[in-house]
Amino acid sequence: MKQTSFLVLGACAAMLSACAPTIDQRGNLPDPDAVLQVQPGVDDRAQVQKVLGSPSTIATFSDKTWYYISKKTSRVAFWDPTVLDQEVLMVKFDDTGVVSDMKVYGLENAREMTPDPNETPTSGRELTILQQLLGNI
Fold this sequence. Notes:
With about 140 residues, this protein is of the alpha+beta class. It contains four helices and five strands; from the N terminus they run H-E-H-H-E-E-E-E-H. The longest helix has 17 residues, at about 1-20. The radius of gyration is 25 Å and the shape is flat.
């Protein structure tokens, strides 16, 4: 009886430990002291990269804006992760490559985006499940 109690207690402890949240930190957010070293109107791209490191991403349609992105999430078991903190440092450069503006955006500036449920049409033939399964034979 005592052995069964310990077994049940051990199983319960193992199940509860599996429900502990997993904290995940992703991205490249530079040290705040390093960010203060970058001076708009003075520093150029090479100096920014030397002080802050490589950006997480560069603007899609222009290389004049660099983004340093960091995101901290918490996930419990198989549920969707919850965003705990998110910061984006934006560094803009003028036409000569000198820093013209810097801004920090936090979680309060984030917007929820819902993907479009419509599909993008593609060319080609539509295959049935049977044709897909037997197509490699």
